[in-house]
Amino acid sequence: MMMSDHVWVVGELQADPARDRAGCTVTVRVGRGRFPEDRSVRVSAGQAELTGDWRRGSMVEIEARVVGARRSLVAHRVYTLATG
After folding, report:
1. Which residues pair with 39 in a beta bridge?
2. Which of 81, 75, 80, 83 lies closest to 9 in space, CA to CA?
3. Residue 16 CB: number of other CB atoms within 10 A?
4. pTM of this prediction?
5. Domains by residue range for the chain, with CATH
6. Which of 8, 50, 63, 76 could form a disulfide with 29 if both were Cys (CB 3.0 to 4.6 A apart)?
7. Strand 48-55 relative to strand 2-9, pairing
8. Residue by residue, what is the 3-state secondary structure of the chain?
9. CA-to-CA distance for 18 and 22, rounded, in angstroms?
10. pLDDT digits (tens, 9 = 90+) for 45-77
């Protein structure tokens, strides 16, 4: 059964939230295996919300890079979706 879950890319992706403009672009790679999806989302106040239909219990891998910040930062996380 497909369900909608929310995956949050949080403010630590901001190089310097006090100085960098909110609205930096974050490129996010979601999924594991041969066909991950690349999506660009906007960061607002250091936070971006990525929504999609994921299978419960599936692994979601996020690689996010802030573009347009004073420094380029990369964050990497792996989530197990268990809500719902």
Report:
1. 28
2. 75
3. 10
4. 0.32
5. 2-80 (2.60.40)
6. 63
7. antiparallel
8. CEEEEEEEECHHHCCCCCCCCCCCEEEEEECCCCCCEEEEEECECCEEEEEEEEECCCEEEEEEEEECCCCCCEEEEEEECCCC
9. 9
10. 445 555 555 454 555 555 555 555 454 445 555
Distance CA 46, CA 31 (A): 23
User: Judging by beta carbons within 10 Å of its beta carbon (0-12, 13-18, 19+), is residue 64 exposed, middle or buried?
Assistant: buried
Could you give the CA distance from residue 19 to residue 48 in angstroms, rounded to a whole number? 18
Tokens (6 digits) for 44: 């607002």
Among 62, 53, 67, 1, residue whose Cα is nearest residue 32? 62
